[in-house]
Design a protein that fits this description.
The protein has eight helices and seven strands, in the order ββαβββββααααααα. By secondary structure, it is α+β, with helices and mostly antiparallel strands. A five-stranded mixed β-sheet has the order 2-1-5-3-4. Strands 6-7 form a two-stranded antiparallel ribbon. This is Succinate dehydrogenase/fumarate reductase iron-sulfur subunit. Its cofactor is [3Fe-4S] cluster; [2Fe-2S] cluster. Keywords: Iron, Iron-sulfur, Metal-binding.
Length: about 250
């Protein structure tokens, strides 16, 4: 099949979209494999390859985030860019590929952005305080099944930043809520539960992420399908943090 990749190229303060026609592509290729083919041809021609983030290529690491035709990770629901296959496009399509667009995600080069702001939100949550001593016996602390399911659902967040890129406000609340929730609903995460929520949201705001107005664009863009109710749970913890002195 043939595709034209219209790719954002940037090496300084400004950038532009450049068209790259590609032919002889297999519909079974992943989108990143198509970028690999393009880069091999650019290098062979003595040109600068397209810079893009990638790592596991299994939909786990969250590195491959790009906007494809204006959609975070592309048109397929619950699919990362590395697992998006060319068969989801039509022969002859023009596909626009851009980096995440958000103030806290400055463009480093081409499709690569600096997403370290997400790491700083996690770091602001601090550590879990636990009594020192020997390791507890397995299953010594019972966890209700609904709480375990909720924690597992939130822990599926891969930190790709798609929620930020899709949000009209550039908010990272879905990410922040997922990272706070997977600790906050478990017994082991109760120490500092509410102060953790307060500190993570404060860091989120200080880094320049927009406020959440429940636009709901983040959940459809999330490759792991983390629900909007996760934000509601964070808001409840945040409210308690501001109305009580207790961290538990």
């Amino acid at each position: 099949m043939k595709l034209t990749l219209r790719i954002w190229r940037q090496s300084g303060a400004t950038g532009r979209l450049v068209d790259y026609p590609l032919d002889d592509l297999s519909p079974d290729m992943s989108f990143l494999e198509a970028l690999d083919v393009l880069n091999e041809r650019l290098i062979t021609a003595g040109q600068e390859p397209v810079a893009f983030d990638h790592d596991c290529r299994e939909g786990i690491c969250g590195m491959c985030g790009v906007m494809i035709n204006g959609m975070a990770h592309g048109p397929e629901k619950a699919t990362t860019a590395c697992q998006l296959h060319l068969r989801h496009f039509r022969d002859g399509d023009v596909v626009t590929v851009e980096p995440w667009r958000a103030d806290p995600f400055p463009v480093v080069r081409d499709l690569v952005v600096d997403r370290s702001a997400l790491d700083r939100i996690v770091a602001a949550g601090g550590y879990i305080s636990v009594p020192a001593g020997s390791a507890p016996d397995a299953h010594a602390t019972p966890v209700p099944k609904p709480d375990a399911d909720t924690a597992f659902e939130a822990a599926a967040c891969i930190g790709c930043g798609a929620c930020v890129a899709a949000c009209p406000n550039g908010s990272g609340m879905l990410f922040t809520a997922a990272k706070a929730t997977h600790l906050g609903v478990l017994p082991q995460g109760q120490p500092e539960r509410y102060s953790r929520a307060r500190d993570m949201v404060a860091e989120h705001d200080a880094l320049g992420f927009g406020g959440c107005t429940n636009a709901g664009e983040c959940t459809p863009a999330c490759p792991k399908g983390i629900p909007l109710t996760t934000i509601a749970r964070l808001n409840a913890d945040l409210l308690r943090a501001h109305t009580t002195k207790s961290d538990r």
